[in-house]
Amino acid sequence: MAEALTATDLPADPTVRGWRRRRSARPAGPAPKALTGRRAWVRRAPLMPALVYMIIVTQVPFLVTIWYSLRSWNTLTPGSNRWAGLNEYKLVFTDPNFRSAILNTVVITGSAVILSMLLATALAILLNRKFFGRGVVRTLLITPFLVMPVATALLFKTTVFDPIFGLLDWILGPFGVHQVNWIGSYATPAVVAVLVWEWTPFMMLIVLAGLQSESLESLEAARVDGANAIQTFLSITFPHLRRYIELGMLLGSIYVLQTFGEIFVLTQGGGGHGSATTNLPYYIYELAFQQFNVSEAAAAGVIVVIGTEIVATITLRLLSGLFAAAEGLA
Amino acid sequence: MVTWLLAIILFFPVFWMVLTSFKKEGDAYTDPPRFVFHPTFSEFSQVFSSGAGPPFLHSVFVSLVSVVLVLALGLPAAYALSVRPIKRWRATLFFFLSTKMLPYVAAIVPIYIIALHTGLLDNDWALVILYTGFNLPLAVWMIRSFLLEVPRELLEAARIDGAGLYVELRRVILPIVMPGLAATALICVIFTWNEFFFAYFLTATKGPTVPVFLVSFLQSEGEYWARLAAAATLACLPVILAGWIAQKQLVRGLSLGALK
Q: pLDDT of chain A along its 330 residues, tens only?
């Protein structure tokens, strides 16, 4: 689907720089311990099947996407499968729906990731104390993540958001809120709510891992120095947690960006407001399978891949620092 | 106690799904929602008689085959990136990760066309191939983190004893990383079982998997809540159980092995 990130794009963290410096310091000729020829291939052999598999599975569809993006094929128009150069790209860039799909993707992903991280951090802190039935509570809390996403969407659409019989209507009834068409009137918040419900457990587990890896000595030291709970949290726990929060948000964004099933089931991309919840995956789906505009969908796909690749490169730089740090601890 | 309260609130939709699945339709649509009713299995049997069997078999087949493939490809690759690393192991590791970040939705058109031309449309193997690709990077990262925990001394000792690669894997490494491999497999099953997007476009007409069946169920049968809840409960049950069993390892899989 995209060109691989090459080694030169990669990390900027201290460990890696050291590693590279050592390598480049070596003379170009056969170094004493360098693996040469056959032996190097023996080492590489176990890797090859997986590497070749991933290259084929990701690069072949990407090349085919590029091919179709340079044509003007709409399956409804006979004879339209012709060479068209960059015309489809021009169509995508000038399509206001494309721009709103980018905006919707950013809004949905951003709010879902931030809200679920806030909720997850609170839950993780609560869960990081000893109390009766902690194991059971943790089991209950991770369950939303395990429920099939389309099942989640179907259940929320029917039993939670229904204007008359839904749980939300029942809960808010005493507050004078009755028969609100939640999905129709609040399409984006409805989608975000479902995503937050799904992704909070994921974030919570990562933050919890962070809390549990915190060194007891420094907490003890803070207590001895007379710091109160809030001071301890702000000056010791939070800086330590930051890395885990970043990791959770980055990984969460990777997955939430791709949301399709939930939107497909809940709002069909729109709700009551045209295309308020049409994110990029849904936009491509509409182009390809509702307007049968194969080439324009392909062009949009290529643009999205390149855009994501830019974001992903930045993400990877950050991540590799995180991973190096995590491995340094291990 | 706040924690218990929050946990119950967040878990409530799942509880409600299971509760509704034992209702008759008349008990499902009530205002206020009904907690006490005569439980019945009738909706479950309705779900089965409307053709839930084959989708389950498709999902089981696709999940199992792709998991076996993922482990068969992933374990040797993880070995070459950790125990006896190749020169550019770090770059290779990040290549795997970068494929995970691709918006796979962008490739649906060509994948659909390729499947159409190779006769893989409505064929479980198309999904096996794709899901193996989705899970392989995850598995390589995860298995690698387990392999790194195999004590160096043990490997050295085996090598001094003249153990070849096969014996080393079989006798030294496998017993230690077995729990890790099991956790990796479970996490791959969770993602495979729940995947909707490709399953929907590549198998919709003849060989739907469970999520596709669930959505088409809603479209064809109308919104009967109790029946829908029964179908959803059945669909989610295997993965929820698997997740509960593997919850200790879940965090490691989800963070690609970066955290323990």
A: 333 433 333 333 333 333 333 333 344 444 445 556 777 777 788 888 999 999 998 888 888 888 888 988 887 777 777 787 788 899 889 888 899 999 999 999 999 999 999 999 999 989 888 888 888 898 999 899 999 999 898 888 888 887 777 788 787 777 877 777 778 778 888 899 999 999 999 899 889 888 888 777 888 888 888 888 888 888 888 888 888 888 888 888 888 888 888 888 888 766 555 677 888 888 988 888 888 888 899 899 889 888 887 877 777 777 667 666 665 544
Give the B window 159-188 contacts with A, CB below 8 Å.
none
Alpha helix positions (H), chain B: 2-21, 25-28, 42-47, 53-80, 89-100, 108-118, 124-147, 152-160, 165-167, 174-194, 197-203, 210-221, 225-245, 247-254
CA triplet A96, A100, A104: central angle to 5 degrees? 170
pLDDT 10s digits, B25-36: 777 777 667 777
Interface test with A, best of B5, B6, B27, B101 (most A CBs within 10 A): B101
Q: What is the pTM of this model?
A: 0.84
Residues of A in contact with B259 (CB under 8 A): 206, 209-210, 213, 244, 247, 326
| A-B contacts (CB, under 8 Å) | 311
Residues on chain A touching B229 (C-beta within 8 angstroms): 155, 159
Q: How large is the ipTM?
A: 0.86
Per-domain residue ranges for chain A?
A: 12-87, 88-329
| Structural domain contains residue B43 | no
Distance, CA of B102 to CA of B87 (rounded, Å): 26
Hey, which residues 1-30 in chain B have their CB within 8 Å of chain A?
Answer: 2-4, 6-8, 10-14, 16-17, 20, 28-30
- State the smallest CA–CA distance between residue A314 and chain B in angstroms: 11
d(CA B200, CA A249): 28
Instruction: Find the residue in B nearest to A41 (Cα).
Output: B86
Query: What's the CATH superfamily of A88-329?
Result: MetI-like (1.10.3720.10)
Domain assignment present for B65: yes
The SS3 call for residue A74 is coil
Predicted confidence at residue B257, as pLDDT, reads: 66
- If phi > 0 it is left, if psi is from -120 to 50 it is alpha, else beta; for residue A179 that is left
Q: How far is B60 from B56, CA to CA, in rounded Å? A: 6
pLDDT one-digit tens code per residue, A70-85: 988 887 777 777 787 7
Neighboring chain A residues of B244 at a CB cutoff of 8 Å: 139, 142-143, 146
Indicate the residue of B33, B76, B87 with minimum beta-carbon distance to A49.
B76
Indicate the DSSP class of residue B50.
Answer: I
Q: Is B190 on the interface with A (CB under 8 A)?
A: yes
- Please check whether residue B130 touches A, CB under 8 A: yes
**Structural domain includes residue B34:** no
> Total structural domains in chain B?
1
CA distance A277 to A270: 5
CATH number of the domain enclosing B107: 1.10.3720.10
